[in-house]
């Protein structure tokens, strides 16, 4: 049913201002079910609540409550007006919180967890710059390659590399993607030649990421969305991508490394990309934080800094 409110005063601005003054009494009465209970909540008399609601009814030209000796029950018009009042009140509260966050200084402790190497090279430098601009901000950076629970371990923000995911109670946003590339030193290519297909990779020693008795397999998508998995034979394995990159630069084998790690080496010529026309696997880089009605200023500051400035592939 469409509810139409008839305005009995010429000035709409005056009506809106007067309604704002009396709306809290109306909402309290609707929620409490009686004028007396609303008065106790607002520290007003029952009569004052009744007069406030009567003024609203007079301005709108509708009856909001059906009054009995025991209770005040909302009419259809009252229920429709209550829904709009609640929505407007929530908007006002959120707006006030945003303004307060903008006026207040960024202060307090911000705890961020992130992968070791990506965090050290790409995330930590940006977050440390925030402490230069905000003297009352303290940051605690946790660098580890295993995922942690933000709630259980008390972190404000997590940087994660991997498939996008939906987690109940967490909000997220993407800050980029990275591609994993095959690469080798010019000295190795001079000795063994440039590969022309994945089948040629058997001619080279591989430098492989290995941790906890697990070796990473190299994954290559084709144009049809299928994946080719390669288990490279290696004599050098390490649980640190930086070590693998150093070994590749020294000519000890070919490596499969993220572009953000080797971009400077590719640009300088210390490493060469192999099979550059081959489709590459891309992985998402996301931020996660605990969902709350209002994001603290220090957390919003970090999210904005990483969303706007972390290099995207």
From TrEMBL:
InterPro entries (alphabetical): LysR-type_TF_proteobact-type (IPR058163), LysR_HTH_N (IPR000847), LysR_subst-bd (IPR005119), WH-like_DNA-bd_sf (IPR036388), WH_DNA-bd_sf (IPR036390)
The keyword tRNA processing belongs to this UniProt entry's keyword annotation: no
GO biological process, one term: DNA-templated transcription
Stored PROSITE patterns: HTH_LYSR (PS50931)
Highest taxon listed in the record's lineage: Bacteria
Keywords, sorted A to Z: DNA-binding, Transcription, Transcription regulation
Keyword Disulfide bond among record annotations: no
A Gene Ontology molecular function term of the record: sequence-specific DNA binding
Domain HTH lysR-type: 18-75
SUPFAM superfamilies on file: Periplasmic binding protein-like II, Winged helix' DNA-binding domain
Pfam family membership, one: HTH_1
Position of the signal peptide: none
PANTHER family recorded: HTH-TYPE TRANSCRIPTIONAL ACTIVATOR TTDR-RELATED, HTH-TYPE TRANSCRIPTIONAL REGULATOR
Family membership noted in the UniProt record: Belongs to the LysR transcriptional regulatory family.
Name of this chain's protein: DNA-binding transcriptional LysR family regulator
Source lineage: Bacteria, Pseudomonadati, Pseudomonadota, Betaproteobacteria, Burkholderiales
